[in-house]
Automatic annotation (TrEMBL):
It comes from Paenibacillus lentus. This is N-acetyl-gamma-glutamyl-phosphate reductase. The keyword Amino-acid biosynthesis applies. Catalyzes the NADPH-dependent reduction of N-acetyl-5-glutamyl phosphate to yield N-acetyl-L-glutamate 5-semialdehyde. The lineage of its organism: Bacteria, Bacillati, Bacillota, Bacilli, Bacillales. The active site is at C180.
Length: 376
């Protein structure tokens, strides 16, 4: 049972509330109890930021394999006075005694082993890794270079790209949260592809990410002196998000789709921009495109369509769950250019995971997510 300090409003997971009256007075009685495995990573700590402000969910356990027993503020001093909690260890049975829903913000290869154990205990799971996104195990193994998860568990996974598959998420027990690049890419391409306005064989995606997309661990790739004032292309034709993008575009197009997908690392902390090109199948004006996209995303609060010819920037979604999309038809080349931006840690990970929690529980999908982007 979580205790919220009545004076400072901080959440103390180490203390025990001693009466239901206290719980009721703080409105916790009917909250869904959530645990976060991988709470010491960038995705996990962003889940904490949003869940602390969520009116219907209550964090009951923050979990780490390497730092169990230590206060979370040891690694994340920015939570001082906000979340008082020692990190719990990774024990699915103990976690299930406390939580109704578990977020696994853990690396690929770790989630594939943890999730089956968690589901066995009866908790609902939202997994942020790539382990359960690819439905064909041989494709998964070819791109991820390690064993695919158990087939039966894989079959249970609902792919949670909320604006596209939101109807499948309601009432689901296990959600596989989409990748960051696939989220920006798919939301940008799907309206034009599903309308048949672009040639599926012609798609090129030029993608760029801030460094937090690589997680909190250090590497030569993300070392300050290596990436500051630098711009690097990486994993060309080998990126693990290629089969995820192709699987979803194939479903929409009803025919096999392959894409050229090139990722770049940019010297900024957060943000993804995907600039996409495809051959138009007819003569469509920018106004036609605006109408198509606005209609497609009508009633979807987290997708914002720019006026034709206006281009979104990563700063305009920084720290928020928005995906902003701009486009223009080029009548000289007959091609369409689409620019889609998200915050990789929010709409690309923790924010979309909470949007999925909301849809899973039948709540308004914006619950706990109505934060404006941080600007400038
Ligand atoms: N960063 C991003 O923008 C995005 C990330 N993702 C995916 O989300 C997941 C988390 O990413 P991110 O937060 O960036 O990664 P980080 O590297 O920042 O964090 C990884 C987390 O996993 C935990 N962990 C590592 N090994 C184990 C283990 N054996 N058992 C339990 N926990 C373990 C680590 O904690 P500890 O060592 O303390 O146990 C840490 O909390 C990954 O699958 C990533 O691919 C998806 C979309 C976007
Ligand atoms: C900048 C950077 O390194 N980004 C990571 C994004 C991976 C990620 O977020 O993980 P998922 O595969 O779980 O989606 C990459 O390109 O591999």
């Amino acid at each position: 049972m979580t205790v919220t300090d009545q004076v400072n409003g901080n959440v103390n997971l180490n203390a025990t509330a001693n009466s239901d009256a206290l719980e009721n007075s703080q409105g916790h009685a009917n909250k869904v109890k959530v645990a976060i495995i991988g709470s010491t990573g960038y995705g996990g700590v962003e889940l904490i930021r949003f869940l602390l402000g969520h009116p219907q969910a209550e964090i009951v356990s923050v979990i780490s394999a390497s730092s169990a027993g230590l206060p979370i503020t040891d690694g994340f001093p920015h939570l001082t006075g906000i979340l008082v909690s020692d990190l719990d260890g990774v024990d699915p049975v103990e976690i299930a005694k406390k939580a109704d829903v578990v977020f696994t913000a853990t690396p690929s290869g770790v989630s594939s082993k943890l999730v089956p154990q968690l589901l066995e205990t009866g908790v609902k799971v939202i997994d942020l890794s790539g382990d359960f996104r690819i439905k064909d195990s041989s494709v998964y193994e070819a791109w991820y270079k390690h064993d695919a998860p158990d087939e039966q568990v894989l079959e249970q996974a609902v792919y949670g790209l909320c604006e596209i598959n939101g109807d499948d998420v309601g009432g689901a027990e296990f959600i596989s949260n989409p990748g960051c690049y696939p989220t920006a890419t798919l939301l940008g391409l799907i309206p034009a592809l599903s309308a048949g306005w672009i040639d599926p064989a012609s798609i090129i995606i030029d993608a760029k990410s801030g460094v937090s997309g690589a997680g909190r661990g250090t590497s030569l790739m993300t070392h300050y002196a290596e990436i500051n004032e630098n711009l690097k292309a990486y994993k060309i034709n080998k990126h693990q998000h290629i089969p995820e993008i192709e699987q979803n575009l194939t479903q929409i197009a009803g025919e096999p789709v392959t894409v050229t997908f090139t990722t770049h690392l940019v010297p900024m902390t957060r943000g993804i921009m995907c600039t996409m090109y495809a051959q138009l199948n007819g003569t469509y004006t920018n106004e036609d495109l605006t109408e198509l996209y606005r209609q497609y995303y009508e009633g979807r609060p987290f997708v914002r369509i720019r006026e034709a010819g206006q281009w979104p920037a990563t700063k305009e979604v920084f720290g928020s769950n928005y995906c902003d999309i701009g486009f223009a038809a080029d009548h000289r080349t007959g091609r369409l250019t689409i620019v889609s931006v998200i915050d990789n840690v929010v709409k690309g990970a923790a924010g979309q995971a909470i949007q999925n929690l909301n849809l899973m529980m039948g709540w308004d999908e914006t619950t706990g997510l109505k934060l404006s982007p941080v600007y400038p």
